[in-house]
Design brief:
With about 450 residues, this protein is an alpha+beta fold. It folds into two domains: about 280 residues, Hypothetical protein af1432, CATH 1.10.3210; about 140 residues, OB fold (Dihydrolipoamide Acetyltransferase, E2P) (Beta Barrel). It is about 45% helix and about 15% strand. It is built from 16 helices and eleven strands. Strands 8-1-2-11-10-9 form a six-stranded mixed sheet, with no helix packed on it. Helix 6 crosses helix 13. The longest helix has 24 residues. The chain is globular and about 85 Å long.
């Protein structure tokens, strides 16, 4: 028995019958081998924690857009506070703490800069509107890892999608609003508990509020200090949920109404305060101008936020790569991305010898074919090995990919000289080729994507 199996058996023994067990997960978007030392939800948590989107949360502010001082919350500290509160509740109710933590860490990955001010602007500018919960799911399904996504389990993605309440009810009977799992519903409440407390704390620190102006009626129910309020709210969730048998997440009527009233009070007295509103207007103008600029200047978007290995977008470039002893050149304009960790995602069951197809890999919410360039040119070895890279091409109708043994680099087109191709490949399926590239005195096969598609019959 490996370590993952032991952890899964431990869950079965100690967790509540209402918990979502790792072994009962509905699975991932794309099939993959499970980790031998982590459960599925532990693996999801780690993928989120190590993602670029998670690191970017540290620069995204909450209410105060450019605060002076080190003690104001950011989207990252908010996420950590949500995670702590949610784990405490999950542990007390014997629910799956790993699933709870994964949802909590991922719930705001798609949030805009400048908090909800940024979200409102993008909602106006984006065709079809913009919601940070949908963007958070898009981050983990599509945008992370250069378009491959994190391939998280359904339960984590569902919890991320359904964590937000806006000014709506904290809990609901609507299954389209509430998460599938109790763990996801815990995060929904932990989110509001975290932000009503830390936003109130930050507003006091900023001098926007003073203690005597706080809603004393609500504080008598919830607590006079931040730690007392969090303790009382968390304890209320645990006690109310246990009182209902542990099969639902609940709040007492008194505390639930007090939290709702405090949230609404903050909207009126903090989020819509004149000084905060003026900062929101500045933030809105910055986001609007950046959006419109990059919408009209795609090259600049790639330059400031593009994929690292695709280099500059100015001069036309060619990539040189190797398959065995044979060298190839490829126009960078035909290249979508380079992936170096593709082997764990390669689905060999979709291999098709007639199309010279090694299999398929997930790419931006779809599965794309990986064609066997070695077999096309009758070179030895077709099984991907460590150290190889996957080159994803745009394709005429849909993307496809080939495997490179080694990449030499990307070079200006001026370094290449086109020459007629000899009968080197006479009788080989690559007969569509009639030119090669001379590069530093070496003949390279020029990978014309249109001709390759003809060879594979996938024009």
């Amino acid at each position: 028995m490996n370590i993952r199996n032991s952890l899964e058996q431990r869950e079965i023994k100690i967790l509540s019958s209402f918990a979502c067990l790792s072994t009962a997960s509905a699975g991932r978007q794309f099939k993959e081998e499970p980790c031998p030392v982590r459960t599925a939800f532990q693996h999801d948590r780690d993928r989120i924690l190590h993602s670029k989107s998670f690191r970017r949360l540290k620069h995204k502010t909450q209410v105060f857009l450019a605060p002076e001082g080190d003690h104001y919350r950011t989207r990252l500290t908010h996420t950590l506070e949500v995670g702590q509160i949610a784990r405490t509740v999950a542990r007390a109710l014997a629910l799956n703490e790993d699933l709870t933590e994964a949802i909590a860490l991922g719930h705001d990955l798609g949030h805009t800069p400048f908090g909800h001010a940024g979200e409102r602007v993008l909602d106006e500018l984006t065709p079809g509107g913009f919601r940070h919960v949908s963007q958070s799911v898009r981050v983990v399904e599509v945008l992370e890892k250069d378009g491959r996504g994190l391939n998280l389990t359904l339960e984590v993605r569902d919890g991320i999608l359904k964590h937000s309440k806006g000014l709506g009810p904290l809990l609901s009977e609507d299954p389209d609003v509430m998460a599938l799992t109790l763990e996801g519903r815990i995060v929904r409440l932990a989110d509001v508990i975290a932000y009503v407390n830390h936003d109130l704390d930050d507003a006091l620190r900023a001098g926007l509020l003073c203690e005597q102006h706080l809603p004393q009626k609500l504080l008598r129910v919830l607590g006079g200090s931040r730690s007392e309020r969090i303790h009382n709210m968390v304890t209320d969730i645990i006690q109310a949920s246990l009182a209902r048998g542990g099969g639902e997440i609940a709040l007492s009527a008194e505390v639930g109404q007090a939290i709702t009233d405090l949230r609404d009070w903050l909207f009126e007295n903090v989020y819509r305060a004149q000084s905060v509103h003026e900062e929101f207007l500045k933030a809105a103008r910055i986001i609007r101008e950046l959006f419109l600029f990059f919408a009209e200047n795609e090259d600049s978007l790639l330059q400031f936020g593009g994929r690292g290995r695709l280099m500059s977008v100015g001069e036309e470039m060619k990539l040189v790569f190797r398959l065995g002893s044979l060298g190839f050149s490829l126009g960078v304009k035909n290249l979508v991305e380079i992936r170096e960790d593709f082997r764990e995602y390669l689905d060999r069951s979709s291999a098709d010898a007639s199309l010279l197809q090694l299999g398929s890999v997930p790419h931006r919410g779809d599965h794309i074919p990986v064609h066997d360039l070695k077999q096309l040119f009758r070179l030895q070895g077709s099984v991907p090995q460590d150290g190889q890279a996957l080159l994803v091409m745009a394709g005429a109708s849909r993307p496809w990919a080939v495997v490179a043994d080694r990449i030499d680099g990307i070079f200006p087109k001026a370094q290449f000289e086109s020459q007629p191709l000899s009968l080197l490949f006479a009788g080989v399926r690559a007969r569509e080729y009639d030119t090669l590239d001379l590069w530093r005195g070496e003949p390279l096969v020029f990978c014309d994507t249109g001709k390759l598609e003809k060879c594979w019959g996938c024009e």
